[in-house]
Amino acid sequence: MKILLTGANGYIGARLLPLLQKAGHEIYCLVRDKRRVNTENFDGEQTHIIVGDLLKEETLNVIPKDIDAAYYLVHSMGTAHTDFRTLEATSAKNFINAIEKTSCKQTIYLTGIVNDDDLSEHLQSRLGVENVLKKSKVAHTVLRAAIIIGSGSASFEIIRDLTEKLPVMIAPKWLRTKCQPIAIRDVLHYLQGVLLNDQALNRTFDIGGPDILTYKEMLLGYAKARKLKRHIFTVPVLSPRLSSLWLNIVTSVNYNIASSLVESMRNEVVCKDDEIKAVVPRTCCTYQEALKLAFKMIEQNSIVSSWSDALNRGYLDGTFMDQVKVPQNGTLTYKVKHKFTIDSNMVLDNIWSIGGRRGWYYLDWLWNLRGLIDQMVGGVGTRRGRRSNATLYAGDALDFWRVILADKKNRRLLLYAEMKLPGEAWLEFKIVERSTYKYLSEIATFRPVGLWGRAYWWLMYPFHIFIFNGMARRLINYKEKNKILSLPKPEMPRLLPPGDAH
Questions:
Q1: Which of helix, strand or coil describes residue 488?
Q2: Per-chain mean pLDDT for the chain
Q3: What are the residues facing 179 on neighbouring strands?
Q4: 4 near 65, Cβ under 8 Å?
Q5: Are 258 and 247 a contacting pair, CB within 8 Å?
Q6: Mean pLDDT, residues 410-437
Q7: Which of 117, 210, 217, 229 has the most beta carbons within 10 angstroms of its beta carbon?
C-alpha cells in the first residue's frame, strides 16, 4: 500500500521507515529539506522523498492523491516560539486539509498520555493536535504513550546520564510522579499493527509497558541494571524555574525543553485501559528488558536515530541546511593547513570520530568549559554527544554543533554551531590531495552580529591559534589504541516530557 510518512527525520520516523520498507509498502516521506534525509538504504522504486512544509499549506500539493494511510509524527518540542500551540494546530490543520484531498483511509498519530484534568501546556498542545485530527473526514487512530525507552531516545539518554554522573541526587518532588514507560520496539509494533486495521479506526489507545513506576524508581532501576549504587532524596522546595535550570545544567536539554519537561512531570502518565491488546496482541517489554535492549544497541554501535538529531529550535523552525554554503561576505575566518604523509583514510576516520566520546583531540577541557558556559546561558552545551561513534550524516547533532555536510567521498565535513553566539559560526574539515603532497584543511568561519560579535571573535582569536593548530596535529597523528565496545560513558548528563516520542 502507499503510505505518507511525516517526521521521517525524527526519532520515531527514522525507525519506522525501514520497518515499513521491509513490509513491502510504498512510502512517501514528507520533509522540508531533502538534504536532511539519509537515503543510503532507500529503494528508489519503494521509497520517495517529497518536499513540503506543514506550516505552508500551498506546498502540500506534492502529496500523492492515491495514498492509503498517513502517519503524523511531527511536533515542536523544544521550540522557543512563544505560541507553539498555535503553530502545532496550524500544522495539523494543514495536514488534514491536504489529506482530505486524497484517497487516504486512515491517519495515525503518536502522542502523549493525557488522562489528567490539569494538563501541562505541552500536553495540552498535543491534545489540541489530536482533536484537530479527530475532526477530519478521514478515519483516525491515536496512540498515546508515556516516556519511550530505547537507544537514542531522550528518555533513556537523560535517565542514563543522570544516573551515571550523579551518585547522590537531591531532586524535586516530581520524581514521585508515576508513569508507565514503554520500549521503542513495542511502540513501533503498535504503529505497524494499527495500520489499516479495521478494529483501530476512529479509536484512541493508551500504550505502555507492564511496569508503573515513579521517575525515581526508573532512575534507581537503571542504577540496578548497571550495578551502580545511587541515592536520591526528593525535596518540595525546588520551584519549576529552579527545576528547569537544574535540568539545563545537569543534563543536555536546553532550557525550553527543560521547562516543558518540568511542567509536564506533574501529570501522571499511566494507561487508563489496555484495549490496544485486543486489537494488536503484544507482550510488551518490562522496563528492565527495555534498558537491556538499549544497552545492546549501544554496544553494537547500532543507534538508528537519536532525539538530539531533531533541530535544536524544534521541528517548526527554519531549515538549517540552508547553512551548507558558508558565506564569504561579512565573515571572519581562521584557516589551518597541515601537510601529512600517512594514509588519508586514517586521518579521515579521525575526522569522522570527532566529538562525543572521542572528544575534540586537543584541550578538551576548554571545549567542555565552553559547553558549560553555553548551558549556563540556555544553550545546548556539549553534552548531546553524537548518535553513533562510527557514522555521521547531515542533520546529526554533534555536541554543540550540527552536521551540515558529511561527504566522505570528497573528504569534507562541515559543522554549523548551535551554541549561543553573537553571530553564526561554521567549522569545516577537509582533506586535500595534490600530485606531490596532501594536507588537512581546517577553516573556522564566523559571521558576527554587531560590535559585540566582532569583539567576541577577537577575544577568542588567541585561543583559535593554538586550539585549531593543536587539533590538526592530533587529527593527523591520533591512533586509537583500544576500541571500546562496552556501554559508553555519557558526555555529561542528558527524562523526556511524558509522551515525547519523536
A1: coil
A2: 82
A3: 213, 269
A4: no
A5: yes
A6: 90
A7: 217
Residue 148's nearest CA partner among 106, 88, 190 is 190
- What pLDDT score was predicted for residue 316? 42
**Phi, then psi, of 4 in degrees rounded to 5:** -95, 130
pLDDT in tens, 345-369: 999 999 999 998 889 999 999 998 9
- Classify the phi-psi angles of 487: left when phi > 0, otherwise alpha if psi is within -120 to 50, otherwise beta: beta
Q: What is the pLDDT of residues 151-198, one digit of tens each?
A: 777 677 778 777 877 888 887 777 888 999 999 999 999 999 999 999
Q: In what order do the strands lie in the sheet with 397-398?
A: 332-340, 438-448, 423-433, 412-417, 401-407, 397-398
pLDDT band for position 251 (50/70/90)? low
For 131-159, the DSSP string reads: HHHHTSSS-EEEEEES-EESTT-HHHHHH
C-alpha grid cell, residue 370: 565552553
The dihedral through the CA atoms of 147, 151, 152, 156 has a sign that is positive
DSSP alpha helix (H) spans, 64-214:
84-99, 121-134, 154-165, 184-193
Q: Which residues have a Cβ under 8 Å from the Cβ of 405 and sit 6 or more positions away? A: 324, 394, 412, 413, 414
Q: Are 130 and 111 in contact (CB under 8 A)?
A: yes
* CA dist., res. 71 & res. 29, Å (int): 10
Cell readout for 299 is 554496544
- CB burial of residue 90 (10 Å; 0-12, 13-18, 19+): middle
Residue 185 exposure: Cα atoms within 13 Å on the Cβ side: 15
Can you give the pLDDT at residue 379? 78
Neighbours of 83 (CB within 10 A): 10
Count CB neighbours of 393 within 10 A.
15
CA distances from 371 to 252, 364, 366, 461 (A): 10, 10, 9, 18
Model confidence at 486: pLDDT above 60: no
Identify any residues that bridge with 397 across adjacent strands, giving them in sequence order: 402
> Is the per-residue pLDDT at 312 higher than 50?
no
* Cα separations in angstroms, 47 against 40, 98, 461: 11, 20, 47
Q: What is the pLDDT of residue 254?
A: 57
**What is the spatial distance between Cα 354 and Cα 361, in angstroms, rounded to a whole number?**
8
The whole-number average pLDDT for the span 328-343 is 88
How confident is the model over 109-130, as pLDDT tens digits? Answer: 999 888 777 777 777 888 889 9
User: Rounded distance, CA 95 to CA 90, Å?
Assistant: 8
Helix (H, G, I), strand (E, B) or coil at 84: helix
